[in-house]
Amino acid sequence: MAARIRRNVWKLDRSDATLAWYAQAVAALIRRPIEDPSSWRYLAAVHGTPQGMATPASARGYWDQCQHQSWFFLPWHRGYLASFEATIAKTVKDLGGPADWALPFWDYSESLSTERNARLLPSAFVERTLGDGSPNPLWSRRARAFGGNFELDDTAVSTGALRFTNFTNSRPGVPSGFGGPETGFNPGGGDNGGIESVPHNRIHVKIGGDSGFMSDPSTAALDPIFWLHHANIDRLWEVWRNQGPQFQDPSDERWLTSVVFQMHDGDGRPITFRCADMPTKVLHGYTYEAVPVAQEPELESVEMAVASGARPEFGGESEGPVVLTGPTTKADVVLVPPSGLEAATAQPRHVYLNLENITGAGIPGDYLVYIDVPDDDRPTASFIGVMTTFGLERASDKSLSHGGSGLSQVFEITELASQLKLSEANVSRLKVTFVREGVAKADADAPAELADYAAVQRKPANVTVGKISLFYD
Ligand SMILES: [Cu+2]
Predict the structure, then answer these.
(1) Ligand 1 centre distance from Cα of residue 397 (Å)
(2) 204 C-alpha to center of ligand 1: Å?
(3) Where would you tag: which of 50, 220, 377, 422 has the fewest CB atoms within 10 A of its CB?
(4) Residue 249: inside a domain, yes or no?
(5) ipTM of model
(6) At 154, which CATH number?
(7) What average pLDDT does this structure show over 125-131?
(8) Residue 331 Cα, ligand 1 centroid: separation in angstroms?
(9) How far apart are CA 431 and CA 167, in angstroms?
């Protein structure tokens, strides 16, 4: 079989039928019963099931399998995309369409100078109805937006994660690389890999808003745009690997072979795969249109850490949990000067700010994080990054793998720490400011066949950062 080519959705010709066939296939899958592994509902349940939805015995080990905050995030979703694409492609063929249908990707990070629409939701997904007045199968329950403009700013579409030279990292206190931290089978909880945090998590919540499908892992895959978003994340993995010989997937057996994932192929037959199978079983069969190094939106460059060496040195922590209420919350980190550095002019090589045990419920949206020191004469605090909250409720669920210890996030702040003279003995406090970005209100209704998912009551949004800490190495 010829390789399928996954194309940039904004570069499809006006005459191209890829999305029209996608819409027809989506409509066909939505009509299938949930017990059918090739149905829309079953495929979405493989990612996650809403609270209260019982998993039939036959679906155990197949539903609720998504891997987040883990070095399995990229490979699990790669297999998931392949399973979905095979199902849609077979349906397209059965409906009389082309035999080589492939999932397009949405490259929202493309420079606006080469694709001015890049940050807009592709037009075929925007309208509720088609030209003939029938429902548009590609429309879904999303944040209210005008003309597909979900206000994706630089902080949402940044591909800065491509600068990580390490795929993973197991050292606590430092960033976990491009792909995510070393974990076992992990449906959620802990630290996001760079690419999972931004743009992945940011896009989910920007599109889903306060109650749309995309904002919650247990409903996200019900939205047809989910798959174009994840095709792009999967493509960025290839972009990352193509940057040079030092950009390597893990070679550890615990990543390659220790965890086996189960899904179905395009004919609904059970299949299994491991990360070691990625290049052969799963990646084989499709290729991405032009995998260039993505254009970087204008963001301050951040030096990314390479995983090596000993455990970083503790540099201070907040006095207690920080409850994020209101539009702005400030908290102090009480600093401990790094040993051996107080008297010297030497600076620590890297400084990391950690947000630990981020727990809560609902869809609070993301937070912009700023730092400054109380007596600093700068007029404004400095932006260090975005605390993303996609998957918060799941990560806070005590019945799941991490026992409800929540999400965590690490920011490298080396350059700012040196400007703020954090490692000097007379600087005793660091002020951290969380600015709530807010979530857009979502449409109240959903596609008619999926209305039951929209009726699920959401818990009121709340977020607590268990601890803010600082590490040096
Ligand atoms: Cu996702």
Answers:
(1) 19
(2) 6
(3) 377
(4) yes
(5) 0.93
(6) 1.10.1280.10
(7) 95
(8) 30
(9) 31
